[in-house]
Amino acid sequence: MMCRDRFRANRRGFKQRGITLLESLIAMVVIAIGFSSIVMLQLRSMQSSQSSFQQSIAAVQATDLVERLWANACVLNDEVRRDEVLGDWRGSHEEHPWMPNWTGEMDFDEATSTYEITISWLDRLATGDEEDSNRTFRYLARIPVLDCN
């Protein structure tokens, strides 16, 4: 008789103790969504970090070419010598492990003595298709043509 009275007392307005199965399932779903969001955020952070790192490497490579051009400023009016400097620069950065499929190009504008250095590479961690994975870095440098004779 005591058990029946207790059951009836709970139905009359006494507070329930514990949680139901439905409440615990809803809590588990909310926690799972939150955890998967944190994992996706971490993944995106790693992709952005890798992309920034590669762009920094491209900036260092472009600066290296500009320094090589300044070191040969006396002979830059000769197109053959400019191509030799570009070839040496490409050779020194040819097998870079952090810049897969990279290419380096240089254009010279004689009117303004401006060099445009373009470095392109494949970002393997980028999201999307292969077109979105191609990254490009452009660097402009003005180096005067000197006559050192």
From TrEMBL:
Listed transmembrane segments: 21-43
Highest taxon of source: Bacteria
Keywords per UniProt: Membrane, Transmembrane, Transmembrane helix
Name assigned to this protein: Type IV pilus modification protein PilV
Species of the source: Nitrincola tapanii
Source lineage: Bacteria, Pseudomonadati, Pseudomonadota, Gammaproteobacteria, Oceanospirillales
